[in-house]
Amino acid sequence: MNDKGLFEKTLEEVQVNPEINDIILIYSDGVTETMNIFKNMFGLENIKKVIEKNAEKSAEEIKEALLKSITSFRGNALQNDDLTFVVLKRNQSVSST
Fold it and tell me: What are the b/e assignments for 31-51, b being 16+ CB within 10 Å?
């Protein structure tokens, strides 16, 4: 990719230290911008609702719930962007040796 360094200039490295049961969601704009047949977007509020409703579940179960919610919201509308997301959940403390 020949972007003249623009890509590197827009990257930001962040370090996080999640507590037990913290959930981290990394997603592309295709998730929040998924549209239904009425051109309504899925949005951040719907993501928050799905995560809050499924917070006690595993990362895999949260992923499945979010995908199901997005697919249900979209209905028969065409998918117009990528749908990329990763769900991370810290389950136990890490022991230092």
Answer: bbebbeeeeeebeeebbeebb
Cα 28 to its chain centre, rounded Å, is 7
End-to-end Cα distance, the chain: 42
Tens place of pLDDT per residue across the chain (97 aa): 567 777 778 888 889 999 999 999 999 999 999 999 999 999 999 999 999 999 999 999 999 999 999 999 999 999 989 999 999 999 876 565 5
The whole-angstrom separation of Cα 17 and Cα 39 is 38
Q: What is the pTM of this model?
A: 0.83
- What percent of the chain is helix, strand and coil (3-state, nearest 5)? 35, 10, 50
